[in-house]
Design goal:
Layout: H1 4-39, H2 42-78, H3 82-109, H4 111-118, H5 125-135, H6 139-154, H7 158-182, H8 186-210, H9 225-259, H10 264-298, H11 302-329, H12 331-336, H13 344-357, H14 361-376, H15 380-406, H16 408-448
Helix pairs in contact: 1-2, 1-7, 1-8, 1-10, 1-11, 2-3, 2-5, 2-6, 2-9, 2-10, 3-6, 4-5, 5-8, 6-7, 6-8, 7-8, 9-10, 9-14, 9-15, 10-11, 10-13, 10-14, 11-14, 13-16, 14-15, 14-16, 15-16
């Protein structure tokens, strides 16, 4: 086993940049929402939220390939086969680039249908089309940029991931202010700000790999569909976690329109932004420990694998409690960033619902880290059971049941109930994974003896 101090250093080295990167992603949409609400109005804020499922789906597709690729690349590097690791890295980058081109063409030709499918109403459809129509142009930079950002950590440069996303975040904030507030470009200006920021982050990461400073670099390769299938199978759980945001937001939007009314979409927009920020924090911890666990799992250093897992779970627990307390105590100033308190009814309604929803933050971290750990030790079925449960199956069933039992208030409590249900079987899955690792350790000791 690695020295405990060294493991803690590696944990911080990988998790801090990963959490920072995930925060930046969630802040992209949040900053857009803040500037749009102040510079355009509440209908425009609702439109940005309506567009969120599309953006989350794009990000989820990047995670699908990135998570699988970084697991395989890290394990391959751990086994000492740099040549194969480079081939897998290049294969993944080319694949996501091709996928991006297909998505752009399909989305642009179906923009009207896409806006209606996402839930655009008569008062928001023009805003949705303006925002989405611009974002779509930058899809390639969204997908490839995040892929390179994740793999740069496997290359041994997690600090560059932090620098890259910070450059992008600062650019997004500055351009949002210029385009939306100063130049009055509206939701389209917010979309351009986000897209340009992604171009810069992509350029930063791409230049690193072109310079061939680390172990990973672009090389000649053959399309190996067997490896692609493995990349996808490993990435599905984390993909499910992220794409669940898109599906849940879409279903919640429809439920709110049907049960409460269009005005409540503005409240849900605020709740959704805070939820994404907390969830991506947990995903950052999860994705931060994945390359380290995969590396030591490839080296068959089981004690180090379990030590990193415990660090991840402890970090998620602390983050969950802190997030809950911040939201409960500072709910009013948080909501004030998006909604003026001059609209007292909407403001109070949103504050109350945000506090109710925040109980889910106490549980989701455990579930997300459990799923991520299963991915890191190549247990995609276990990971999928947790991710698919919390991301789609359980939350959708719980939402329907809570609405039937409690009406509108049921929408705001359903996520907490869902996360608790998933945690019950996630604990059993994690225990099974730990036992498998311990048995693997015993088998190795018998072989060595």
């Amino acid at each position: 086993m690695e020295n405990t101090k060294d493991l803690k250093t590696q944990f911080k080295k990988y998790v801090v940049p990963s959490v920072t990167a995930m925060w930046v992603f969630s802040l992209y949409s949040m900053v857009d929402g803040i500037f749009v609400s102040k510079g355009v109005g509440s209908d425009a804020l609702a439109a940005v939220n309506i567009s969120t499922p599309y953006i989350n789906t794009i990000f989820a597709l990047s995670i699908l390939f990135s998570t699988g690729a970084t697991t395989i690349v890290s394990m391959t590097l751990g086994n000492g086969d740099n040549k194969k690791a480079n081939e897998y890295f290049t294969l993944n980058t080319v694949t996501v680039s091709i996928l991006s081109a297909i998505i752009i063409i399909f989305s642009l030709f179906n923009l009207d249908k896409l806006a209606v499918f996402l839930g655009a109403t008569n008062s928001t459809i023009d805003y949705v089309k303006e925002y989405l129509g611009t974002i779509i142009l930058f899809v390639g930079f969204y997908i490839v940029s995040y892929s390179l950002e994740v793999l740069i950590k496997s290359d041994g440069y997690p600090h560059l991931a932090t620098i890259g996303v910070l450059i992008s975040a600062i650019t997004n904030i500055v351009l949002d202010y210029i385009f939306v507030i100063q130049l009055n470009y509206g939701v389209q200006g917010a979309a351009f700000a986000t897209g340009i920021a992604r171009v810069l982050s992509f350029s930063f990461f791409f230049i690193h790999f072109l310079r061939k400073k680390g172990k990973l670099q672009f090389v000649k390769f053959k399309f190996d569909f067997k490896i692609l299938k493995r990349i996808i199978s490993i990435g599905i759980p984390d993909f499910t976690t992220e794409v669940s945001l898109a599906i849940v937001v879409l279903i919640f939007n429809q439920s709110i329109l049907r049960v409460i009314g269009e005005d409540a979409l503005v409240s849900y927009s605020v709740v959704c932004y805070i939820n994404i920020l907390v969830l991506t924090t947990m995903m950052g911890i999860s994705q931060g420990i994945q390359p380290i666990c995969s590396y030591y799992y490839g080296k068959k250093d089981n004690k180090s694998v379990l030590a990193i897992l415990n660090m991840g779970l402890k970090s998620a627990k602390i983050s969950s409690i802190v997030a809950f307390l911040i939201v409960v105590i500072f709910a009013k100033p948080i909501v004030l960033m998006f909604i003026s308190n001059s609209d007292k009814e909407l403001f109070t309604y949103t504050v109350n619902n945000l506090r109710i929803f925040s109980f889910a933050f106490l549980v989701m971290g455990y579930n997300v880290v459990t799923a991520g750990f299963c991915v890191s030790i190549d247990k995609p079925i276990y990971a999928g059971a947790v991710s698919l449960g919390r991301g789609m199956v359980v939350i959708i069933a719980t939402l329907g049941l809570m609405v039937i039992l409690f009406g509108g208030i049921g929408i705001w409590i359903s996520t907490f109930i869902s996360e608790v249900i998933v945690m019950v079987y996630a604990r059993k899955i994690l225990l099974k994974c730990k036992n498998d690792i311990e048995n693997r350790k015993e088998d190795m000791e018998l072989i060595e003896a």
